């Protein structure tokens, strides 16, 4: 486990640096990220590089046994770049150029910007690419800018030409005869602003993904051509941010890292666990928390503080889900910067803030578990399929504004978290052999090849759950000509006869052992069984007339290996959703681990089966929980105590159990 912070030495007189680094060391920090956003200090004028200060900062960190992560400074191009090369500025959707100085103002599509990015990174890599004190690189910062310039438009048109080859094919897939959109040649195709043709909107998102892949490729090449391979390369991602397809962008990174902020309120482990699992799923690998809040942020509606002790619970929760590092943002706020009031470890007076003590405790506790966690990760039997294409398709036409595809994924995840079931969140194209149960959460875009991939796995014995809105569209965001679930209709032994955006709740009568009827809100699909083997597992009660007595959930056995395809038509209430999830787990031969409310039990394991069990009390009251058999009798690495069959945790208490 690494533990650290983001430090901007260029904001402070050099005489102060050693005191800061000593305080970091005393907090148990082992890593520090520097140079991100420091372009004007690295290349103050065109072609004049000043890297000695970075070298001195790295040396000081090294003296205190802190490894360096170097940020490429490209999210903050200096004033001279913007002034002498206005073509580097991104154009906003309004048609106006972005304003210099709020970072991320440059266009990832601008060849001039890319040229300057590459050059500054090459200089940094030549100097530090073989430096053992630098363990890795973080590229840019939270890729997010979308450029609406003519340059970007031409690149988009070229991207479409590569994909569709002939304009007729594009017209055909996008149904452009509708509203006379038919294009005669590529140069007529616009960048969509607001709502537009579904094919155009989806393709533009995919083009933005391609833009970031290319932007990143330039940066990776600039480093790799000048460094040894022991330095890794990552970038810091933003949770559910859907500006691009992160599965694609993550491919070229060594691992992903992400920035975990709570903003207002407090952390809810049944939601944040999903975010960690999402990030672990991008590469099916452990990840870093590259930024997290030291108590508070400055950008939310109410920048309340975390509870005392909550950050420690968050840190161990992240580790339990596969984080191999936790890095606070930031060490100290620049006196006159845009983020003056953000949480930090050291105040404007240069002294530790109260949060620093929480950090020290995390630092010393991480040291106690670090060896045991080496080589371990999360092993899940359950996967949730998460598709950017589907999110873009649904968000483009929600049909019921309350249908938020991320909310729906959370709705599937929460019961699994409450029952301590490990989950991988993966792309629909990912290998499925490791899983017994796969939940396709609102998999609206279901092309034939993905359907074939899922079908092969179901024939091999997998249990696939298709939730509302699945199998509606093809890869061009056009409607399938067969009813949902489109290419999986036969395997499902059922189809969606009609879908309803709900304005009032609808009764659902389950048939999976749960006796009480419940409700559906937001969305309901009327299912129609198509085969003799299909069993109706829930029906709608009296409702809008259309749905009365109709099938709401179906299950169909597939093949000889025990495969099943389950279709869920309605957005169920929380209680019914929980009982439905327990039912589909049982159908897949799985079950969860019981624990009292707000107590999480999670396991990391090594390839040889060695397990580390995290028991985390997320609430501010004492809790006692039974332990899974594999953890009973093991040592709590934090206290040294040997656990019996159960463990009692203090408010916000943690036990980390291991045989070693
Ligand atoms: C983002 C950025 C950081 C900082 C924090 C503040 O995550 O990456 O540079 O602005 O937000 O919370």
Can you summarize this structure?
By secondary structure, this protein is an alpha/beta fold.
What is the β-strand count?
Answer: 25
- CATH-defined fold name of the largest domain: TIM Barrel
Helix content: 25-40%
Question: Whole-number radius of gyration?
Answer: 26 Å
Describe the sheet with the most strands.
9 strands, mixed
Distance between the termini: 17 Å
Strand order of the largest sheet: 10-9-11-12-19-18-17-14-15
Supply database-style keywords.
660 residues; TIM Barrel; Rossmann fold; Immunoglobulin-like; nine-stranded mixed beta sheet; eight-stranded parallel beta barrel; 25 strands; globular; binds alpha-D-galactopyranose
Notes on the structure:
There is one protein chain. Helix 8 (198-224) packs antiparallel against helix 13 and helix 11 runs parallel beside helix 12. The strands form five sheets. A nine-stranded mixed β-sheet has the order 10-9-11-12-19-18-17-14-15, with helices on both faces. It has an eight-stranded parallel β-barrel with strand order 1-2-3-4-5-6-7-8, surrounded by five helices. The chain has a four-stranded antiparallel β-sheet with strand order 20-21-25-23, with helices on one face. The mean pLDDT is 97. The radius of gyration is 26 Å and the shape is globular. It contains 17 helices and 25 strands. By secondary structure, the chain is an alpha/beta fold. It starts with a strand and ends with a strand. The chain folds into three domains: 2-147 and 211-373, Glycosidases (TIM Barrel, Alpha-Beta Barrel), CATH 3.20.20.80; 382-587, 3-Layer(aba) Sandwich (Rossmann fold), CATH 3.40.50; 599-658, Golgi alpha-mannosidase II (Immunoglobulin-like), CATH 2.60.40. 31% of the residues lie in helices and 20% in strands. It binds alpha-D-galactopyranose. Residues 141-142, 259, 261, 291, 297, 299, 329, 339, 342 line the site of alpha-D-galactopyranose.
């Amino acid at each position: 486990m690494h533990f650290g912070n983001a430090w901007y030495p260029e904001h402070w007189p050099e005489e102060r640096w050693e005191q800061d680094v000593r305080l970091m060391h005393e907090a148990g920090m082992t890593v520090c990220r520097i140079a991100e956003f420091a372009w004007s200090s690295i290349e103050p004028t065109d072609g004049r590089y000043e890297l000695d200060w970075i070298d001195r900062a790295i040396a000081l960190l090294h003296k205190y046994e802190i490894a360096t992560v170097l940020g490429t400074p490209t999210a903050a191009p200096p004033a001279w770049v913007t002034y002498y090369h206005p073509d580097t500025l991104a154009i906003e959707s309004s048609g106006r150029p972005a304003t210099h100085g709020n970072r991320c103002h440059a266009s990832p599509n601008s060849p001039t910007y890319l040229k300057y990015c590459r050059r500054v990174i090459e200089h940094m890599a030549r100097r530090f690419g073989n430096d053992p004190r630098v363990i890795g690189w973080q590229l840019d910062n939270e890729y997010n800018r979308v450029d609406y310039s003519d340059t970007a438009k031409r690149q988009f048109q070229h991207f479409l030409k590569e994909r569709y080859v002939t304009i007729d094919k594009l017209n055909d897939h996008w149904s452009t005869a509708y509203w006379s959109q038919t294009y005669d040649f590529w140069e007529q195709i616009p960048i969509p602003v607001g709502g537009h043709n579904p094919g155009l909107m989806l393709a533009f998102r995919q083009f933005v993904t391609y833009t970031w892949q290319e932007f990143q490729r330039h940066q990776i090449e600039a480093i790799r051509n000048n460094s040894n391979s022991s330095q890794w390369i990552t970038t810091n991602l933003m949770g559910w941010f859907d500006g691009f397809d992160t599965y694609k962008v993550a491919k070229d990174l060594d691992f992903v890292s992400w920035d975990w902020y709570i903003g207002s309120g407090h952390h809810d482990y049944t939601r944040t666990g999903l975010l960690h699992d999402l990030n672990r799923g991008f590469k099916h690998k452990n990840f870093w928390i590259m930024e997290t809040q030291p108590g508070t942020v400055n950008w939310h509606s109410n920048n309340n503080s975390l509870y005392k002790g909550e950050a420690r619970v968050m840190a161990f929760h992240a580790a339990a889900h596969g984080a191999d590092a936790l890095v606070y943002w930031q060490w100290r706020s620049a006196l006159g910067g845009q983020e003056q009031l953000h949480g930090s470890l050291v105040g404007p007076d240069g002294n530790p803030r109260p949060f620093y003590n929480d950090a020290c405790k995390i630092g010393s506790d991480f040291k106690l578990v670090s060896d045991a966690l080496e080589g371990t990760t999360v092993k899940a039997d359950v996967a949730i399929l998460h598709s950017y294409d589907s999110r873009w398709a649904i968000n483009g036409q929600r049909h019921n504004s309350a249908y938020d595809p991320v909310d729906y994924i959370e709705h599937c995840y929460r019961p699994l978290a409450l029952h301590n079931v490990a989950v991988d969140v993966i792309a629909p194209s990912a290998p499925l052999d490791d899983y017994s149960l796969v939940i396709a959460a609102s998999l609206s875009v279901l092309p034939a090849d993905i359907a074939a991939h899922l079908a092969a796995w179901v024939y091999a014995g997998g249990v696939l759950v298709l939730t509302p809105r699945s199998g509606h569209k093809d890869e061009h965001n056009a409607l399938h000509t067969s009813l949902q679930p489109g290419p999986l209709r036969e395997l499902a032994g059922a189809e969606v006869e009609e879908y309803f955006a709900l304005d009032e709740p609808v009764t659902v009568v389950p048939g999976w052992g749960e006796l009480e009827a419940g409700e559906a809100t937001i969305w309901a699909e009327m299912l129609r069984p198509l085969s003799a083997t299909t069993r109706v597992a829930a029906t709608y009660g009296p409702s809008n007339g259309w749905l009365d007595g109709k099938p709401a959930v179906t299950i169909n056995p597939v093949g000889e290996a025990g495969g099943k395809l389950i279709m869920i038509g309605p957005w169920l209430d929380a209680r019914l959703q929980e009982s439905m999830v327990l039912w589909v787990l049982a159908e897949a031969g799985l079950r969860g681990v019981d624990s009292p409310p707000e107590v999480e039990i999670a396991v990391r394991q090594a390839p040889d089966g060695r397990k580390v069990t995290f028991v985390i009390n997320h609430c501010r009251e004492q809790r006692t929980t039974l332990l899974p058999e594999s953890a009973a009798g093991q040592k709590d690495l934090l206290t040294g105590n040997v656990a019996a069959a159960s463990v009692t945790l203090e408010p916000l208490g943690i036990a980390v159990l291991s045989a070693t």
